[in-house]
Amino acid sequence: MILKLFIAFWSLISVSYGQTSVVDFCVADYTIAKGPAGYSCKNASKVTTDDFIFSGLDVKGNTSNLFKFAASGAYDLTLPGLNGLGLSLFRLDIDVGGAVPIHTHRVSEVIIVMEGTIIAGFISSDNAAYFKTLNKGDVMVFPQALLHFQVNVGNTPALAFVSLNSPNPGFQFTSYSLFANNLPSSIVEKITLIDEDQVKKLKSIFGGTN
Ligand SMILES: *[C@@H]1O[C@H](CO)[C@@H](O)[C@H](O)[C@H]1NC(C)=O
Ligand SMILES: *[C@@H]1O[C@H](CO)[C@@H](O)[C@H](O)[C@H]1NC(C)=O
Q: Which residues form the Cupin type-1 domain (predicted)?
């Protein structure tokens, strides 16, 4: 019994030592190409406090686009100190009648609504939809890699902040993925069952070709 406990305890310690970083931080060195784990570390003697600071999330993003939304924020390219730390923070602005179109990231996301009323939701891999009207102060989580969206259903602009557990979560918007590319429309029809004419129309809206 004691031995078992000891072994369990020891494997716990080994795991946590295995995951413990050997550096306090790894500020992104933009002069070297990024790899799967992120950027290389900037020489610590050159690191300054400003490498850990991002300003401007008090300013509304530019919502002049098809979906009337903006996402702006602090991620590895705008806040080098986030590199290697597994998190990022964005501001979402959604105008009246607008939406953050359905999209995925490589990671999970948590949202907090600050102003307005939105319907937020995600779709699981067995095609169940989980969605709800959220108001100021409400928090919702979107599990990693699942398709999700936010729709402004109020009469005022909506403001929310989201945090994701990657310094570069990636944004893959389904409509743009399908209709902003150069895949022949006949192939898009085959892989979606959407009429080729409709595909061509959507490609012209989203900037795709062929
Ligand atoms: C980091 O910068 C210091 C001071 O300029 C220099 O002495 C040191 O060699 C640098 N380290 C690396 C790994 O480049
Ligand atoms: C907002 O974005 C639109 C479309 O990209 C652009 O035409 C416009 O100049 C931008 N407005 C500002 C204030 O940057």
A: 55-200
Based on the number of CB atoms within 10 Å of its own CB, is 32 exposed (0-12), middle (13-18) or buried (19 or more)?
exposed
Query: Looking at 3-17, 38-52, 64-78, 136-150, which range is the least confident one?
Result: 3-17
Residues in the ligand 2 pocket, defined by CB under 6 Å: 62, 64
Q: Return the ligand number nearest the Cα of 31.
A: 1
Tally the residues of the chain: 210
Q: Verify whether ligand 1 is closer than 6 Å to residue 45 (CB atom).
A: yes
Is there a contact between 176 and 103 (Cβ–Cβ < 8 Å)? no
Helices (H), the chain: 2-19, 174-179, 185-192, 196-206
Domains of the chain by residue range:
2-170, 171-210
- Cα(45) to ligand 1 centroid in Å equals 7
**Per-residue tokens: 166:** 């990657």
Q: Is the pLDDT at 163 greater than 70, yes or no?
A: yes
Q: Say yes or no: domain 2-170 is CATH 2.60.120.10.
A: yes
**155, pLDDT greater than 80:** yes
Break the chain down into helix, strand, coil percent, rounded to 5. 25, 30, 45
Is residue 11's pLDDT more than 50?
Answer: no
Across the chain, mean pLDDT equals 91
